UniProtKB/TrEMBL annotation:
Gene3D superfamilies: NAD(P)-binding Rossmann-like Domain. It comes from the Bacteria. PANTHER family: NAD(P)-BINDING DOMAIN-CONTAINING PROTEIN-RELATED, PROTEIN YEEZ. SUPFAM superfamilies: NAD(P)-binding Rossmann-fold domains. Residues 14-218 form the NAD-dependent epimerase/dehydratase domain. This is NAD-dependent epimerase/dehydratase family protein.
Amino acid sequence: MPSTAPAAHHVVLGSGPAGTALAAELARRGHRVRLVNRSGDGPRTAGVERHAADAADPAQVRAAIAGAATVYHCVNVDYHRQVDLLPGIQKSILAAAEAEGARLVVLDTLYPYGSTGGAVMTENTPWRATGRKGQMRAHLDEIYLAAHESGRVRVALGRAADFVGPGVLNSTLGGAVFPGALTGGEVLALGDIDLPHSYGYIGDVASGLATLGERPEGDGRVWHLPTAPAVSTREVHAMIEERVGRPLKVVVLDEPRAFGPFDERFMREYAELFYQHTEPQIVDSSAFERAFAVRPTPLGAALDATIAWYREAIARR
């Protein structure tokens, strides 16, 4: 039976920090936007329609994306469920996008590269992941690119570094850092904090994905979303200290173990990715910047926005 859902030009699947920020960015750009999660609930954003659907159910996804010119896949699941669930979610979303004739923009990770020994990551970096999650992500990306090459679905992949920004909680520069920085509590750091490490501002992730959604000339390949120049985590801490007016009480984990919002199960699952904190993690987004004439948000401005958001969040408690 044909879907009776109202038409939407841009549909965002997944309402985590990236999906939520992306929906708001698309609305700001004047697009009609539908934001989809399992419940259909969440904070209201001007110009954004909410819709309930299970991303693993092709029929529900097809109904959710009815009328869309462009679909954005920002769905994620808990670390311990990724290998089991993400392949099925991909199959569901690809089938729905193909049936609707919609373009597909995928929020991607750096995991397919695996350990680089500290080499700068570009879109030409070989995919050499050895862990389960990295290999799974690489396999999914091969399927996306093959779907584009075969003419099934027009696809663009946007890879992002570790998130930082308003609404970002479960990140190494998120809920285990800023509340402690603002209240005098402990602040988490992982691995060697003197190594350069790239952080992706959530606003740049959103604007980068929106740009890919508006610019079909970017289809058929992987892009690194706009990322500020890498600095060491110690330098990031110093920038935070300057802004909050107090020294940070930093707890450095040299190996994965439970801390703050990261419980034992999460850290056990994260262990295979801990190399990201024991070697330089440097993302080069210059190809995207040149192609689309954009620049990443300076890290200082990203931290200002993040701290302001966390101040408000703490005040609401």
